[in-house]
Amino acid sequence: MAEKRAGNEQDKSLQEARDLISTTSVLTGAGKNLESLRAAERAAEIREKVLGPEHPLVAAVINLVGLINSDIGEMAKAETFFKRAVDIYEKSLGPANLETAVPLNNLAVAFKVRGDFVAAEITYQRVLAIREHELGPDHNLVAAVFNNLGVLYRARGDNAASRKMYERALTIREKLFGPDSLEVAPVLNNLGLLNYYSGDYAAALKLGRRVLEIREKFPGRKRCRSLTLWTISGCSTPTVEKRKKR
User: Fold this and answer.
1) Measured between alpha carbons, how far is 83 from 91 in angstroms, rounded to an integer?
2) Residue-wise over 82-117: b if at least 16 C-beta within 10 A, else e?
3) Could you tell me if residue 160 is inside a domain?
4) What is the model's pTM?
5) In a domain, 224, yes or no
6) 164 with 127: CB under 8 angstroms?
7) pLDDT tens digits, residue range 3-27?
């Protein structure tokens, strides 16, 4: 009877953790990031107490805590949580498991943000190796890593390597989704930016118009999210044209 009561209490605690995790997306969407962080941290405490510190479900919520810290600009803290999530997954599921690749990818982003391009590249390459082995070379998640590597290489000034990564990502996504899909648009956008900053304004404009045409087929989607995504709407196409005429 005592064991049954203990089991029931554990089930209740784990359900509480699941409920807390569910609320984090709602809170974050409402701009209540600190409340979201507290909910995720509480869920992590519950899972660690019930399941132990090296359970995969603990790693999942630790990764979530890292993501929320990243959202509020606490990148050093985020990096710590991503590393811990990776460590737990490696111990519980193995270093080449798809779940391990999730916080690894987030860790690569954290490395890039703080300017450690070498660590970011090594980590992205590890994510790529896992995903290609487990999912095959033509999976969308593989394309995502190629796109991320393209962003990384452009940030460090290696435009040739960046172009190669973007083109590999584009090939995969066009094969999977078709040339006019929303999934293709971000990679085209990045290629356009690469051309723009390389001084090839004609090529940049051509890709920008192609992205705009894709986006116009999906009018319900948000446009002009930031200056980085200049090709998503007509806001910056004139800028490219103006630069081209100089």
Assistant:
1) 12
2) bbbbbebbbebeeeeeebbbbbbbbbbbbbbeeeeb
3) no
4) 0.85
5) no
6) no
7) 556 568 999 999 999 999 999 999 9
40-99 residue pLDDT tens:
999 999 999 999 999 999 999 999 999 999 999 999 999 999 999 999 999 999 999 999
Say if 18 falls within a structural domain.
yes
Is residue 22 exposed (0-12), middle (13-18) or buried (19+ Cβ within 10 Å)? exposed
Question: Has residue 22 been placed in a domain?
Answer: yes
> Rounded CA gap, 85 and 105, in Å?
11
Residue range of the domain that includes 68 = 12-123
In whole angstroms, give the CA distance from residue 32 to residue 35: 5
DSSP string, 11-32: HHHHHHHHHHHHHHHHHHHTT-
Helix H or strand E segment including 71: helix 56-71
Residues contacting residue 89 through CB under 8 Å, at least 6 positions apart: 56, 59, 97, 99, 100, 102, 103
CA distance 188 to 203: 11
Do residues 40 and 32 lie in contact, with contact meaning Cβ atoms separated by under 8 Å? no
C-beta separation of 34 from 77 below 8 A:
no
**Number of independent structural domains in the chain:** 1
CATH number, domain of 63, equals 1.25.40.10
